Amino acid sequence: MRFQVRERIFGVGDDYWIEDADGRKVYLVDGKAMRLRDTFELKDVDGRVLVDIRQKLVSLRDTMVIERGDEKLATVKRKRLSLLRNHFRVTMVDGTELDVSGRILDREFAVEYDGELLAQISRRWLTVRDTYGVDVVRDDMDPALVIAIAVCVITLAEKERDD
């Protein structure tokens, strides 16, 4: 499954649509402005909230949490002791760890589990300026979760760059 994401996104308070490969609107990322922490909601076309994305207020390193309803799904933060600046770890609630690495700010990175590619984020596939694709490789992966992971990683990388 491939999705198209407009580049002017990931600003808190910005709302934007994510489209499928045929150009149909699939998800709305609703940025919540005027909050103490970065907060986003990923909604379906009917306005139902699929996942909430929040920056953790108290943590040693910048951390974002992905939740569905009142249940935590995953925690995203920069990988500890990594020589690569663009390496993040996603810890799922069941303890499973996903690795996210690549050129995050260039929108060229991958999400992997135990060396297996789960999703790839890239500008290479699209000719539309300021757009990149999110390609969910495995059929059993939740596309909303993968998009939420991309939102978290890009938000954290941009925040670190700005600091």
TrEMBL record:
One Pfam family here: LOR
Gene3D superfamilies membership: LURP1-related
UniProt-listed SUPFAM superfamilies: Tubby C-terminal domain-like
Highest taxon listed in the record's lineage: Bacteria
Coiled coil: none
Family statement: Belongs to the LOR family.
Name listed for the protein in its UniProt record: LURP-one-related family protein
Organism: Streptomyces koyangensis
